C-alpha cells in the first residue's frame, strides 16, 4: 500500500511539473517599423474605395485569406503559416499603416504586393476592405 | 474475520497514468495582442486617376486589349487552338486533331510600353511585337483608352529551292492597329480596333506576257484593312464572358478571308489569366489570321450561287502568367 501511494505521488508530481512547463503559443510576431505603423490612411473608406478594394481582395487575397478574412481560403491549408482570423479584435487593433506595411512587404507565405499592386491608393483600398471584416 | 480484498496493481496504477497523460498532452494557448493604436483617417485628395482593369489581361481571344501592365512586368503566354469541328468522334470534334500552338514572352521595360516575342507552330512563325498605351480612360479627361499595337512576323519554314519564298523578305508580314476601349461599368468593357495587315509577297500569274508588255494578276492584295470588336462581361469577380469579332474589310480578288466570331470565358487569379473559347481563327498571329483565315463561321451563298459551308469553329485556350520584378 505504501508503495502504491509513493508511486501515485510520483506520477502526479511528474504531471504537475509537465504542466508547469507548458509552452504559451501565439502567432509569430510581425514587428512593423514605427514610421510605417504611424502612417495615416489617406483614403476615405467610402463605397468607391471598398468596391475597388474588394475587386483586388477577390483577385489577390481571397484564395488564402478567404472571402471574409477568416483565413479559410482554398489555399490556406497548404500554407506553413495559418492566416489569422481578421474579424478578431486582436487583429483589428493594429493601425492602418501597419496593415499597409504587411500587404506591401509580405513575409514567408504572404507575398509582397508592392510590385503587383504598385499604386499606393489600391493598397489603402485593401486596408479599408480589411476593416470591414471586423465583427 | 477480517475481510481481505486484494486488488491488482494495474487496476490502481492504470487510471492514474491515464489521468497523467491527459495533463501531459494538454496545451494552453495564449494570444498576444498588438498594441499599436488605430490611425486617424483623413479625406483622400480629389485627383482624377485612370480607370483600372478595363480588361483583366493583355489579350482577349485572338485580339490584343488596351492593357499594358506596369513597368517590370514579365508575361509568359501559351496559346492553343485545336482542330475544327466537323469530324465528329473521329477526332473528338477537333480536340484530337492537329493543333496550333504559340509560346510567347512579353516584358514592360518602362510604363505604358510592352514588348513581345513569340513562336507559333504553324509556319514556324516568329513574331515580334510592341504595344504602347497612348491614352488612358480617365474621368473628366478621356472617355476612352487608346493603345497602339504593332506586330512583325517571319515565316521560318524550310524552303531549299526557294519555291515558296524567292526572296528572304517574302517571308515577312506585318500588322498595325489602334485599339480604342471603354470601361462602361465594373462589369462591362468594350473595345474597337481598325486594323491593317500587310504581306510582302502574294502569289500571282501573268495574264499577258508578250512583246507589247506584261500584266500580272495578283491573287490577293498586299494590304488588308479590317475591324476588330471585343468585349468582356463580368459574371463574378474572377469569371467573365468574353467575345471577339474580327471582320476583314478589303475585298480580295481571290481567297477572300473569312471573319472570326469567337465566344468564351475568362478566369483570373492573382498571377494567371485563363481563357477558354470557340472561334474561327487558328493562326495565332493577327496578320496571318486577317489575311489567310479560311474557316467560315456561317454558311452563305456566294455571288456564283455556290453554297459555302459554315460552322468551321475550333476550341482554343489562352493561358497567361505574369510576374512583377
Question: Can you walk me through this structure?
Answer:
The complex is a heterodimer of chains A (135) and B (325). With 135 residues, chain A is mainly alpha-helical. Chain A has one domain (28-131): Cytochrome Bc1 Complex, Chain D, domain 2 (Orthogonal Bundle), CATH 1.10.760.10. Chain A has six helices and no strands. In chain A, helix 3 (47-65) packs across helix 6. The longest helix of chain A has 19 residues, at 2-20. The longest helix of chain B has 17 residues, at 9-25. Chains A and B meet through helix 1, helix 3 and helix 5 of A and helix 1 of B.
* Radius of gyration of chain B from CA coordinates: 31 Å
How large is the count of helical segments of chain A?
6
Q: Which structural class best describes the helix and strand composition of chain A? A: mainly alpha
What is the CA-based Rg of chain A, rounded? 22 Å
What is the second-level CATH architecture of chain B?
Beta Barrel
In which range does the helix fraction of chain A lie?
Answer: 40-55%
Which term fits the overall shape of chain B?
globular
Low-confidence stretches of chain B: 26-45
Measured by DSSP, the beta-strand proportion of chain A falls in under 5%
Secondary structure: helix percent of chain B: under 10%
N- and C-termini, Cα separation of chain B: 93 Å
Proportion of β residues of chain B? 35-45%
Amino acid at each position: 500500500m505504501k508503495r502504491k501511494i509513493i508511486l501515485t505521488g510520483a506520477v502526479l508530481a511528474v504531471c504537475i511539473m509537465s504542466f508547469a512547463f507548458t509552452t504559451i503559443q501565439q502567432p509569430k510576431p510581425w514587428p512593423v517599423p514605427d514610421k510605417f505603423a504611424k502612417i495615416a490612411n489617406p483614403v476615405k473608406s467610402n463605397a468607391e474605395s471598398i468596391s475597388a478594394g474588394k475587386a483586388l481582395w477577390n483577385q489577390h487575397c481571397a484564395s488564402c485569406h478567404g472571402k471574409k478574412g477568416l483565413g479559410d481560403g482554398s489555399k490556406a491549408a497548404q500554407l506553413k503559416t495559418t492566416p489569422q482570423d481578421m474579424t478578431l479584435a486582436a487583429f483589428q487593433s493594429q493601425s492602418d499603416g501597419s496593415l499597409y506595411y504587411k500587404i506591401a512587404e509580405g513575409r514567408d507565405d504572404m507575398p509582397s504586393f508592392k510590385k503587383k499592386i504598385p499604386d499606393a491608393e489600391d493598397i489603402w483600398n485593401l486596408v479599408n476592405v480589411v476593416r470591414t471584416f471586423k465583427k | 474475520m477480517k475481510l481481505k480484498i486484494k486488488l491488482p496493481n494495474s487496476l490502481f496504477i492504470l487510471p492514474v497514468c491515464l489521468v497523467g497523460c491527459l495533463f501531459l498532452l494538454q496545451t494552453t494557448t495564449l494570444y498576444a495582442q498588438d498594441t499599436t493604436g488605430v490611425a486617424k483617417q483623413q479625406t483622400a485628395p480629389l485627383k482624377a486617376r485612370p480607370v483600372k482593369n478595363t480588361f483583366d489581361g493583355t489579350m482577349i481571344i485572338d485580339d490584343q486589349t488596351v492593357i499594358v501592365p506596369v513597368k517590370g512586368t514579365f508575361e509568359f503566354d501559351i496559346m492553343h487552338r485545336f482542330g475544327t469541328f466537323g469530324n465528329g468522334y473521329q477526332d473528338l470534334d477537333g480536340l484530337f486533331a492537329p493543333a496550333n500552338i504559340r509560346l510567347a514572352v512579353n516584358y514592360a521595360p518602362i510604363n505604358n510600353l510592352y514588348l513581345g516575342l513569340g513562336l507559333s507552330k504553324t509556319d514556324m512563325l516568329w513574331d515580334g511585337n510592341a504595344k504602347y498605351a497612348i491614352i488612358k480612360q480617365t474621368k473628366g479627361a478621356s472617355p476612352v483608352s487608346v493603345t497602339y499595337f504593332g506586330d512583325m512576323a517571319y515565316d521560318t519554314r524550310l524552303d531549299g529551292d526557294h519555291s515558296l519564298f524567292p526572296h528572304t523578305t517574302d517571308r515577312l508580314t506585318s500588322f498595325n492597329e489602334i485599339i480604342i476601349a471603354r470601361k462602361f461599368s465594373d462589369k462591362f468593357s468594350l473595345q474597337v480596333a481598325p486594323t491593317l495587315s500587310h504581306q510582302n509577297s502574294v502569289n500571282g500569274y501573268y495574264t499577258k506576257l508578250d512583246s507589247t508588255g506584261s500584266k500580272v494578276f495578283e491573287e490577293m492584295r498586299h494590304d488588308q484593312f479590317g475591324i476588330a470588336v471585343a468585349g468582356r462581361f463580368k459574371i463574378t469577380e474572377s469569371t467573365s464572358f468574353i467575345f471577339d469579332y474580327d471582320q476583314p474589310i478589303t475585298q480580295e480578288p481571290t481567297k477572300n478571308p473569312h471573319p472570326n466570331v469567337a465566344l468564351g470565358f475568362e478566369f483570373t487569379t492573382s498571377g494567371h489569366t485563363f481563357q477558354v473559347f470557340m472561334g474561327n481563327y487558328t493562326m495565332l498571329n493577327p496578320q496571318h489570321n486577317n489575311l489567310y483565315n479560311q474557316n467560315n463561321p456561317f454558311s452563305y451563298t456566294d455571288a456564283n450561287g455556290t453554297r459555302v459551308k459554315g460552322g468551321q469553329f475550333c476550341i482554343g485556350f489562352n493561358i497567361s502568367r505574369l510576374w512583377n520584378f
